[in-house]
Task: structure prediction
Amino acid sequence: MSSVLFDVPGPKARVRNVYLNIFTALVVVGIIGFILYRFYESGQFTAKKWEIFTFPLVQQKFLQAIGATLSAFGVAAIGSILLGVLLAFGRLADSKWVRIPCYWFTELFRAVPLLILMMIMYYGLPSVGVKGITPFIAVVVGLVLYNGSVLAEVFRAGIESLPKGQREAGFAVGLTKGQVMRTILLPQAVRSMLPVIIAQLVVIMKDTALGFLITYDEILKYANFLGSQGQYGSPLIPALMVTAAIYVGLCLILSGIAKYTESKMSSRVKVVKAVKVGIAG
Amino acid sequence: MNVLIDNSDLFLTGFKNTGILFVISAFFALILGTIVAGMRVSPAPAMRAAGTFYVNFVRNTPLTLILAFFALGYPKLGLPNISFMTAAIIGLSLYTATYVSEAIRSGINTVSVGQSEAARAIGLPFMQTLSLIVLPQAFRSVVPPLFSVFIALLKNTTVAAGFSVFEAGSIRAYLSERGEPLLPGLLWVALIFVVLVLGILTPLQRYLEKKWRVAR
Result:
């Protein structure tokens, strides 16, 4: 991809690359080896610290925690996309009474740290008498407000990047503005912006871990709880390792879906191009 | 207004520490991110692989988990003690560096091919092509995305509040200890962040973007 930065290696460069490879491998092995050695030295790999993960109850609880993370993610993802579409339409509205509030909404909620939003929901609102705010609601509403605002910008950029002819053609065949938006512009914008949208979904997935800080019972909170179990040797680092593996796995699956859809769509675009060439020829 | 004035000591120290976290982490993230971006475009396959692994691994791990590892897990490894502040700075730098490296790498791709070809034609080796020709141009087009990364870093510093660092995110806990009204206090914290992001960083981003725009 960036092979323009260096020539095809000749004999000298190949030798140098071998040295560089060996050097890099040594440094990487050194760092990972040091971490593993410290883990080993401090007894993180002893059977006692991992025994707790073999209990069915613990595994069940882990699955429950994953379920809690995934349900917060699912609800927040759907909510963010809906809010994003609404705000994007609002920002493209003709009336400035709709446009300007929507602009400030997206700007404000993107500027406030997500954790502060969740704290306002979870600690702030009950202190003025709002009842029924569970950690789940606080996490989901925080995620929806923030990511909805980010996605609104994404959708808007997608719609504005479409050729003007699309909108004009829609009006020309007699569609209303709402119909043009819904049936002509939005589907194309979503398609061209899909990689960005799925990248934002990965962000939502990672940010569910903030729920740990406002006592939502997700994976990290359960790992922290396991880490405090003294009779099993306080296996905090093993628990964090398991948590990291779960999160990286979940996010990689999402990114994998993103790559898959992207490749599928670019192949479809290629087909369209091929058809066009065929017609022209 | 009363909450802010009565507890100005909390707000002042809180945001001072947020500033310290932000500036130091941004500094290290920029250095580490540039090195990793260089590794990811280097001629040696092992360097590219190491850079790619680091970026993919850290970017798919929640920041909360990374900070939990450095703040809660690290002390169990029997290494020299570090303060919670240092732990948070290490975690934030490692996390943000991956985003910096991705921003710089996409910036490298915007520098036209002719530039590096010309550099190679006059005989510059990879390091000089990168450091004298490509990166200086890439840094200019990288300014807007880099600023977005740093704005995200400023907001991410609040996560450190969960790991015993006293900064803007922990003001709430101290307010509730003092029995002060929580909602106004939290809204003040949010407002200060809005001012920092929309009032200072975003205009600065626009200004630098205009000033350093490359005519292509």
Observations:
- Confidence is low (pLDDT under 50) at residues 270-281 of chain A.
- Chain A touches chain B through 60 residues (CB under 8 Å).
